[in-house]
Amino acid sequence: xxxILTDDEQAILAGKEGEARAHAMDLxxxxxxxxxxxxxxxxxxxxxxxxxxxxxxRDVLPPDKKMDMDAVFSLLNLDSDKxxxxxxxxxxxxxxxxxxxxxxxxxxxxxxxxxxLVENTSEFCKRVGIQQSNxxxxxxxxxxxxxxxxxxxMESSAVVYINSVIGARSNVEGAHSTAAAALVGxxxxxxxxxxxxxxxxxxxxxxxxxxxxxxxGLLGYYLGEMVHENIPVLTGLSGVPHAxxxxxxxxxxxxxGGVEMYHLIGITxxxxxxxxxxxxxxxxxxxxxxxxxxxxxxxxxxxxxxxNVDFVMLGCPHASLEQVQLVAGLLEGKKLSENTDLWxxxxxxxxTEADRMGYTKTLEMAGAYLMTDSCxxxxxxxxxxxxxxxxDSCKQAHYLxxxxxxxxxxxxxxxxxxxxxxxxxxxxxx
Length: 430
Known about the structure:
- α15 links the parallel β13 and β14.
- The protein folds into 3 domains: 187 residues; 102 residues, no CATH class; 120 residues, 2-Layer Sandwich (Aconitase, domain 3), CATH 3.30.499.
- The strands form 4 sheets. It has a 5-stranded parallel sheet with strand order 12-11-10-13-14, with helices on both faces.
- The radius of gyration is 22 Å and the shape is globular.
- The protein is an alpha/beta fold.
C-alpha cells in the first residue's frame, strides 16, 4: 500500500530538513503503511517517553555510547543503529514518567548510575525542547488538548482520558512513533483519528450506583475484561462524575482490556444521545454492571492474602491536588505503622502547590512521602523488603503483582491509609 504524502512531507523524507527528520518521516510512513493508513495528519501535541533512563534500557548500547543522548535517542526512540544528530522538536512535546523522583531518589533506592542517566536525559530534553512534565497525566498540568485536536500520545490511561472526556484524537502510540511525530509534527491518520472509528460498539447498562473511586475503578476493570479493545457506551449513571473518577475508570479499562475510548451518555462530548454515541448503528452486545459484576471485579484482586501490609502505593494515575488533600486530611495528627511505608505520586507541578498548601508536610509528619516524576511499577521503585502492597488503583493492582511480584490488596483510599497506619489490611467491599 502506498501513502499519499504532501509536498512538505516528501521534502522532509528526501532529507531537505536533515537526516534525523528524514529518518523520522520514513519511520512514520512505514508505520502508517503497516496500519493501513492512507496519509499522515498534522499534530502539534505529542506526549512520549524519552526512554533512555528507565531501568535497563541503555544496556543494548556499547559502553562508549551510553551517555551520548543522540545515540540513545536514535536507537531507543527512532530505531536507528546510526547515531543521528537530533534537532529541536517541531511539535509541542511532553515527556511522560521518569525513572525516579530527583529529590527522593535515595528513598526510592535508585542507584547513582541511574541518577546520572536521568540527569543526562534531562539535559537532552532541554536541548531539543521536550517539556519535562514527567507525568502520566499531562492533562493535569497544562497540556489540555481541545476537542477534535489530533495528538500523538503514549500512556494508555492518558489516551483514553483525552479521547473520551475531552474529545481529542489519539491512538495509544509508542516510544518510536511519538519520537518521530515530535520531530516532524505528523502522525498516521488511522484508528481514533478517523471520526467513524470513534462510535460506540457495546451498550453497558449500569445498574449499581457507581459513586466512589473504587467503584469507578471496578466498573472500568470489569468492562475492559468484557469489551477488550472496543468502545463501551454507558447508561444509567447518576450525575456528572468528577474528573478523578473518570481518570481511574479509564485507566482501569485500559489496563484490563486495552480500551482507548468510551462514551457516557449526556456527559462525554461525543455522546449527547445514545444514537449519536453509536453513530446510528445498533450495539453489537448489551452488557450490565450490577452488584454481582462489582463483586466479581473486586474478588479478582482480593482473594485472601497476607494481611500484613508493607507498602501502600497511592497516585496511579498520578494524583490530583484534591486527592493529595484527601490523604493529608486522613493522616493529620497520625503516624504510620513502623512496618509500613506510604508513598503517594503526583505531578511535580502539583507537588509545588501541595507544598504551598502544607499537604506535603502533613504527609511527612506522618512518615509518608509525596513523590513526583515516577511510579512504583513503571520506575520499579519500592521500599526494601516489600512483599505485600495495598493500593486504591485497579491499574496499579493489575501491574504490581506482574511487574514487581507483590501480593496486592485493592481498596478505597481511606482503607489504604488505614492500612498504612495499622500495618494490616482490613478493607472490604462495603
